[in-house]
Amino acid sequence: MTATPNEPTPEPTELERAWQAHIDQSTELLDRLVVRHRERQRRYHRIDHVEAVLRHVDELAATEPVDDLGAVVAAAFYHDAVYEPTHPANESASARLARRDLARLGWPADRVERVATMIEATRDHAAAPDVDTAVLFDADLAILGAEPPSYRDYATRVRAEYAHVDDHGWRSGRAGVLQGLLDRETIFHTATGRRRWDEAARRNIGDELAALRG
Q1: Would 146 be classed as within a structural domain?
Q2: How far, in Å, CA of 51 to CA of 140, rounded?
Q3: What is the pLDDT at residue 188?
Q4: Ranges under pLDDT 70 in the chain
Q5: Considering the domain boundaries, does residue 33 fall inside one?
Q6: Core vs surface per residue 61-85: b (16+ CB within 10 A) or e
Q7: Given this model, what pLDDT does residue 8 score?
Q8: Quick one: which of 23, 106, 181, 186 has the fewest CB in 10 Å?
């Protein structure tokens, strides 16, 4: 975010504002994250997904008793920093990158580890041990409760990320993931998330399951 002497300094982007408010005034490491999210294998897990998660974190934090909003924001920035659909441990790799970068910025070790633990927990979004993790989970999964056209676009993009999987394997694997979500008592972990997205998410997931099994 630089300007020539004769040009006004450009307004910070949404990402830059969030980064500078919660992570660090320098955006050098953010710029590297943005480059990562432009990798060619990504169709859904791109920087616009991070932007959406950050917006949902802010929305949820307005009604949920978040303990460390900065840590949740950091986890949102880094939770898909490493994303390779053929790799089984993206969350662990993303957590390692977050540990390295946040330590470089001088974050306390215990706070860094809190961020890394939240990132690793997004592997299955199954158990949220605290409100901060619950907010991250719900912000990440909010797309499930989107309007049907947005949900269908999401599903199409995720399928494109798994183009290396044949149709039979995709249908079987995706149906298993979706059925697992439906089988939960609640898909979302916060009261706000349940109220806002659970009903729509179950409808969207049910429609996709019907298409996969049809």
Answers
A1: yes
A2: 10
A3: 98
A4: 1-9
A5: yes
A6: beebebebeebbbbbbbbbbbbbeb
A7: 66
A8: 106
DSSP 45-111: SSHHHHHHHHHHHHHHHTTS--S-HHHHHHHHHHTTSS--TT-TTHHHHHHHHHHHHHHHTT--HHH
Instruction: Indicate the pTM of the whole model.
Output: 0.94
- The vertex-72 CA angle with 149 and 20, nearest 5°, equals 95
Q: What is the pLDDT of residue 88?
A: 86
pLDDT for res 71: 99
Query: Is there a contact between 164 and 86 (Cβ–Cβ < 8 Å)?
Result: yes
Query: How far, in Å, CA of 60 to CA of 62, rounded?
Result: 5
Region of residue 2 (phi > 0: left; psi between -120 and 50: alpha; otherwise: beta): beta
- The pLDDT, as a whole number, for residue 198 is 98
Kindly give, in sequence order, each residue whose CB lies less than 8 Å from that of residue 60, ignoring residues fewer than 6 positions away: 66, 135, 138, 139, 190, 192, 193
Residue 9 domain-assigned (yes or no): no
**CATH assignment at residue 180:** 1.10.3210.10
What's residue 12's pLDDT? 87
**What's the total number of domains in the chain?**
1
Q: For residue 150, how far is the Cα from the chain centroid? A: 16
